[in-house]
Amino acid sequence: MNTALPDTWSEANQRYLTAALAVVRALLERHAARPQDAPEERDKPRKWRRRSSIHTDVPQLEEGDGPTRTLEEAAEAMPAPPALETLCVAFGLSPFERNVMLLCAGMELDSAFAAHCAAAQDNPQRGYPTFGLALAALPEAHWSALTPAAPLRYWRLVETTDGNTLTTARLRIDERVLHYLTGMQHLDERLQGIVEPLDASGELPPSHHALVHRISGLWSQTKDGSTVPAIQLCGDEDAGKQAVAAAASAAVGLRLHAIRAADVPASATEREALARLWEREAALSGSALLVDCQEPDDADNLRPALSLLERVRGVLIVTAREPLRTRKRQLIRLDVNKPTAAEQRSLWRNALGPLAQDLNSQIEVLTSQFDFGVREIHAAGAGLLADVSGAGEEVSGAALWDACRVRSRPRLDDLAQRIEPAAGWDDLVLPDPQRHTLREIAAHVRQRTRVYEAWGFASKGARGLGISALFAGASGTGKTMAAEVLADELRLDLYRIDLSQVVSKYIGQTEKNLRRVFDAAEEGGAILLFDEADALFGKRSEVRDSHDRYANIEVSYLLQRMESYRGLAILATNMKDALDTAFMRRIRFVVEFPFPDADQRAEIWRRIFPPDTPAEGLDTYKLARLSVAGGNIRNIALNAAFLAADAGEPVRMAHLSRAARSEYAKLEKPLTEAEVGGWA
Question: Does 414 map to a domain?
Answer without folding.
Answer: no
